[in-house]
Amino acid sequence: MDNLTTIKQDLYQIAQMLMLNGTLTECSGIVRGKLGISIFFFHYAQFTGNMLYADYAMDLIDETLSQLHVNSSADYERGLAGIGVGIDYLIQNDFLKVEDDVCEEFDDRMYRAVMYDPWHDFSQYEGLTGYGRYWITRLRYQSPSVQARECLLRIASFANISEVLLYYRRSPTQVTERYFDVMYQTCHMIQMDYAEQVMKLIVEENSRFEEFFNQLISLTNDEIISTKVLFNTVYHTYIHFLKTEN
Asked: What's the pTM?
């Protein structure tokens, strides 16, 4: 039996199992629920050439959207953040053809999650990184782009290493010295990710900032200035940029 045959058999078994679970599961999310299963079936339909699987995937999406409400969970694993990212993925990869902005109804709930709700942590599945992934996808759309920028900036402002470490030391899952370096590097990565997104936003609006940011990054890489100076400069530049825009 060759590898392709084995893969086809394995995928068929997975598909049969997911068809049962997709119907029975109550979870709507991308990681453990209907939206994630629908993504599999769109790809499987493309792989097999059997569009009945795509029809089933659409049924799952319809069920997913019908389960959502104004107070749905905002997290990435089971809630709106992951569902929004998943739907955007399907649209960008031409699995879904839509005329209206499907995720528009999610924006108010996700805005509240970032700006007002207590946040759990910086993880992707339950915390601010997952929220950030949602708002990055919303930058493509004109209507929610202002909200997206505001939320991304707020998430970036939360990514203060000392405050994050203090938060975790007070949490039930405390950070021991053993994991201090891991937490430090993770927080630093989050800061850099969102700083890059903010810089990209500014440059898209005004290309004259590109050379300035490139020099700023170069100075940081050469350790002439600290990353803290980089983050603060990006932050204050963005605040000034917003004021001049308004």
From this structure: 0.68
